[in-house]
Amino acid sequence: MPRWRRGRSLRRSLLVAAVSAAALLLLVLHLHGPELPSSSTTPTSHFPGDLSAGDGAGRGSGEEGEADGGRASSSSSSSSGATCATVERMGEEAASRGSPEAASLRVRELIRRHFLLHGAARVRELPAYELCKQGFVLGKASEAGFGNEIYKILTAAALSIMLNRSLIIGQTRGLYPFGEYISYTNHSFTIGEVKHLWRKNRCARTYGRDLNMRVDNFENPTETNVLCSDWNSWKDPIIWFDGTTDAVGIQFFLKNVHPRMKMAASSLFGLPGSLHARPNTFGELMQIIVSPSQTVEKAVQWALKGSSPDIVLHMRMMSNRPVRARKAAVSCIKRAIEISHLMGTPRVALISDTPAFVNEIKQDISEFAQVIYFDYKKFSKSFGLEVIGNDKVCFTDMLSTVSQSYVVTSWEVSPWLLDLYKQPIPYI
User: H helices of 132-190, where?
Assistant: First the structure.
């Protein structure tokens, strides 16, 4: 066959193959193409580990048809990689899929068993060969501000549970931080007592274990080992996880690359993708680690006036009177009331370290709810107390944290807790 005929035959064969492949592709797309979602008004969002099998279980009756449409297209929506949701949607998921009471009670029992085994009362009575093997976690705070500083101690308590170590609460000149307003658990040690026990049992001389301390500074991202190290393998007697001035630091262990660390963090804080199963871990820790003084407890009871609120709004760093934050807070409260289907006039508690801002926002909220808040001037007059200067700031800041624990841990009520900050806090 001439060369030019062979070339024409080859081109014809390639053209026929290309047309056939295109026709086959169009046929497959026509038969198995993706289904369109039944509704575009409320997009379905999925979180890692929280797929759509129970998406429609907890929604209201008015959304049943939309939920059915969401289930019909669950495979296509999950394959599209939609993993984001608005704050409102996350709130609806948390409310409709169940409450965290069961998870919190599980964590409460976990904390109780830990301190029964690793608490000071048992550990200080151990024989020398066992005590010298014991590990500790240090929590040390200053009096720079109760709301931030208490997280350093609560973080240390959480880490001690994750690592099966005992808790040390640091002192300054023999005094605990904020000791005038709160008392601390007897499950913890002081650094002085640990040094004494180490010398008494000759841990360094007999067992070759010097009382060393390993410091990990969370505020230094280039040096912290929170993500990449297995802290269970650290042999240092004392570990100090420094710089954790909020609830975020300890939850970074949920992203740790070592399965054992991630599992320990998940058992205490729940899985990040399961919003309906996240326990109130810090509330449970605060219950056992610190106790309010009689004055602080009296102030909380005085402000609540004998009954618990339905919704608690916590506001911080509002000294510049942000208008947008105030409008957002009012909108969130209305939305929470709507979702909760509250009967009668809802009770909304306002908690803030900026009393002037409370006086402004209560006017907006009082139009549709009963407002509860702590007025330190009225309280001090009622009980003959003199709260001035830095003590006033510390006292109101302390109430913002203690009252949250006091209210939120009442499972019979389980009020909404809305946090409003000037700057956003990352969610792990």
Answer: 146-163
